[in-house]
Amino acid sequence: MGKAIRTKKWSRRLKVLAAALLTVGCLQVPAYAAGNDGQTIRVAMFANLGSTYKSTTPLITLESTGQWSIQSESGANVNLPAGQVRFSADGFRVKVLETADFKAASAAAKLLQATADKPLLFTTSVNGNAIYQLYTGNYATEALAGQAVTRVQKVAAAQLAGQKPAVTGSKRLSAGTYGSIQEAEAAQANLLSTGVSSVYPVLQLSGGSQAYAVWVGEASTDAELTALKNSVEAKAPGISLSPVNNSAGLIIRQDAGLSTDALKTAPHYTIAGTESKALVQGNGNGIKVVERSQRTYRGDMEISIVSGDLALVNVVPLEQYLYSVVGAEVYSSWPAEALKVQAVAARSYALQQGERFKIANVVDTTLSQAYNGIGSENDKVTSAVDATAGEVVKSGGKIIEAVFSSNAGGQTAHPSEVWNGGAGVFTNVVSSGDTSAQAGLHTWYHVLLSSGVSGYIREDNIKELTTKTNAGLAKVTVTAQNTNVRAIPLIQSTVEPVAKMNPGNEAVVLAKVAQSNDYAWVRGPFTSAQLVKSLQGKTTASVPASISTLEVTKRGPSGRALEVTANGQAMTVKYADTYRSALGGLPSTLFDIAGTGSYTVLGADGKTASKTGSNGASVLSSSGAGTSSGNALVVMSGDGQARAVTQGQTFMFIGQGNGHGLGLSQWGAKGMADEGYDYQAILKHYYQNATIVKE
User: Fold this and answer.
1) What's the CA gap between 652 and 522, in Å, rounded?
2) Phi, then psi, of 39 in degrees rounded to 5
């Protein structure tokens, strides 16, 4: 098979782990690893990688229903019982209070949870008595932590009981190393009994035969660390202390912040040291990541510190990663050949990425491929992945970056319409199967109300009338009270209807259209102000203060927009696909623009003229010439298409496709599979000059 996607350091570490299995009975081979061919992929979930990728969290909460463990680079191993375990990064915090009263600590934590200063609640035992320690943070600098002190003191004033919040840091002293957690905990208890505070056992993450240590303190400055050393030596004469000096370790604490309503505890590991890294080994039940929508994942979880923030990487067998990816990217009810297409494309894309994300090959969002863990898996999808195991798309002897999008709108994009590149493997091809996206969807009526408002009503709420307008346009009413008239032919729970109709109210039918879907869609209406705001920062041109006209002035080989002008000025962008976000979040760049407050007329001399507004237009009716008045004017094209012209100018976008349109169209593949094409034929249609190879 092909090369494993794994860093050299972890390859070495896993070899050490394999050797340890022969001598450490508590380590178990995860059940899911049976039959694995050795290929793994690294999927970043949380990481601060600057402009490449940024998704951060102050806490990572993992959960498993079976026995699992933490493996350090030093070879030390911590068995974890079923349940939750939490991780945080060492750094600047504010210690809010310390109390024996859980209710007081949890009340303060609940108040702080609603602020930007997120709480961390720990518990420890001193001489057999439970003590609760509340912190907020982390903060990037000591100064920022100092600013937080004032805020925290104000919010938690009622629970402080005379205590003053203070900045804490990561400067600590080592009070010795130990061969077992029991020895380290005994040393911790001895120090705490002398009155020394902030004493923690630590799992050392690198080097040395001693797996554990005991660290003291949480000073934020060197002066505080010196004062701490003097204080500890006075309370525990003869103790040997040395600076930790950014050593890599997991500070072992007990978390009491899982619930602010009742005491619920879990192991909590604070990762110290810039090079710290630990591997949480999973089991056949998977690992749940609470901060990732409580999804459960196969494989192991690597936790580290990157750019000062927590990083979480799922290290998982490639084929099992694909079980989830394919299940998230396409419907499991699709034909088996369409599922196989997605499996081969997703595998090719993943393998081609290399170490694009520094600590990982891919991320778990659509920036790479949608990856939602075990919850996206399905037996049909698993069968499709297994049936194509190891198969990839190659061109020129190399695995291609097999990009795909949901729907190409009838024709895939040319690279010049997406990222300014040339043709080759990717070029525009007909994608007739895309129409399968609208099969079985409702028809919607585009109607004009007597008030001058236009909108859309779904067919099952419509009753057609026998009467028509003088222009021959049909009339309708509705079948239920307070029927919603929508801005676009789609029910949007977060968007208010533009109007309501009752039985007996009449409306003029302007058109019948399919419900907005991945193949054909309508978006808008957008006001000038909305578009001006959306364009800001996304175009290299100066955005006008107000937009009266907006049109596509250049198109690429597939018809996608290459240039859009506002008031006659080109709104240039670095990449044409940027128009999707620049114009209010459109599904694709294969669109037309309709200004609702303007229209074009053809004069007797063959010349055209643009008109705006619905008042004052010359009209010719059965009663002779006249002038229009009112809220809306209906204009008809030479082929009988009707639309309403409103008083104010807004813009509607009528388009096709969903996504960048480059490479494989997922709906197009589904349509071709419906017609009987096999997965290899479909892949070769969308990826030109390519071959399907089993690695």
Assistant:
1) 7
2) -75, 130
Amino acid occupying residue 79: N
Give 319-336 pLDDT, tens digit per residue. 999 999 999 999 999 999
- State pLDDT tens for residues 535-569: 999 999 999 999 999 999 999 999 999 999 999 99
Give the integer Cα–Cα distance in Å for 419 and 549.
Answer: 27
User: Phi/psi class of residue 624: alpha, beta or left (left: φ > 0; alpha: ψ in -120 to 50)?
Assistant: left
Pairing of strands 569-570, 642-646: unpaired
Give pLDDT, residue 247: 80
Structure tokens at 545: 């203060």
Question: Who's near 334: CB < 8 A, 6+ residues apart?
Answer: 670, 673
Structure tokens that stand for 562 in this block: 């290459």
Residue found by looking up tokens 């229903």 in the block: 65
Contact 136, 117 (CB under 8 A): yes
Report the residue count for the chain: 695
Q: With CA atoms as reference, report the closest residue to 422 among 678, 689, 654, 62.
A: 689
Closest to 9 measured CA to CA, from 72, 76, 58, 64: 72
The strand pair at 483-485 and 591-595 is best described as: unpaired
Cis peptide, bond prior to residue 525, ω within 30 of zero = yes
Cβ atoms within 10 Å, residue 527: 15
Q: How far does Cα 156 stand from its chain's mean position?
A: 34
Per the DSSP assignment, residues forming a β-bridge with 47 are 55
For residue range 62-108, list pLDDT tens digits in order: 999 989 999 877 677 788 989 999 999 999 999 999 999 999 999 99
Assess whether the previous peptide bond of 138 is cis (omega < 30° from 0): yes
Token duo for residue 322: 């694909």
pLDDT of the residue at 165: 97
Q: How far apart, in whole angstroms, are the C-alpha atoms of residue 481 and residue 467?
A: 21
Taking the C-alpha atoms of 580, 585, 591 and 597 in order, what is their torsion angle to the nearest 10 degrees? -130
pTM for the predicted model, two decimal places: 0.84
Residues 586/579, Cβ–Cβ less than 8 Å: yes
